[in-house]
Amino acid sequence: MLPDDDASTFASEKITTMVSIPLAELATISSPLTYRGAYQVSDKGNARLLTIRNLVSKDPIDAENLLLVQAERPASRTTISEGDILMPARGLSYPASLVGVMHETILPTGQIHVIRTRSIHPEYLLWYLNRQRSQDQIAMQLTGSTIQALKKSDLERLDIEVPSKEIQIMIGRLDQIRQKRDQARRSLEKVEMQEIELICQMAIDRKGHNK
């Protein structure tokens, strides 16, 4: 397996000679998409609500961590499907997130771009949208002074370099491995911080008892 830096360099070298294609020709973008039906928070609900806050988190989308609600029967155009790529339509950052295996209905609330691929590998597109070069290009397209926004039309015009299917799959798999490793690191750091906090509190309590 290639190290992270080598993998990134290899991927970049492989796509530098590719023809750039506007995103609108590779995927369908529904945006800004938001569920506007009535709903109530319920432990026995029939859907989960997804917000921009969930998208800017570094962790992958996990339905079990989303708010469970009882919602009116949603139209199919306002639901999220497995394999969709989601991006905030406004805010301070614009990370792309891939929707994995779904066992529940997820409804988007707020301003969210939903990208449904047609002729490009989803995992590759996810990597491409999140690479720094693409994020810099997106930043140049933002509108608004107080609250910045990413228009659907600007996202559709974003040029994507498209290599062969084999290269797309390889890059997508490498990026998925990196994401899992990063998630494991964050989980380990969280556990370590909790352990340190516990040890410090025990030291404080012990010192208090020794008075």
Which descriptors apply to this entry?
6 helices; 211 residues; 10 strands; 4-stranded mixed beta sheet; Adenine-n6-DNA-methyltransferase TaqI, Chain A, domain 2; alpha+beta
CATH superfamily: DNA methylase specificity domains
How many beta-strand runs?
10
Strand content: 15-25%
Number of helices: 6
The unreliable regions are none
What is the chain-wise order of helices and strands?
HEEEEHEEEEEHHHEH
Outline type: globular
**Order of neighbouring strands in the sheet with most strands:** 2-9-6-7
Query: What value does the Rg take, in angstroms?
Result: 20 Å
Give the name of the CATH architecture. Answer: Alpha-Beta Complex
CATH class: Alpha Beta
The end-to-end span amounts to 57 Å
CATH-derived topology? Adenine-n6-DNA-methyltransferase TaqI, Chain A, domain 2
How can the largest sheet be summarized?
A: 4 strands, antiparallel
The helicity comes to 40-55%
How would you describe the overall organization of this protein?
The chain has 6 helices and 10 strands, in the order H-E-E-E-E-H-E-E-E-E-E-H-H-H-E-H. It has 211 residues and is of the alpha+beta class. It has one domain (4-209): Alpha-Beta Complex (Adenine-n6-DNA-methyltransferase TaqI, Chain A, domain 2). A 4-stranded antiparallel β-sheet has the order 2-9-6-7. The model has no long low-confidence stretch (mean pLDDT 83).
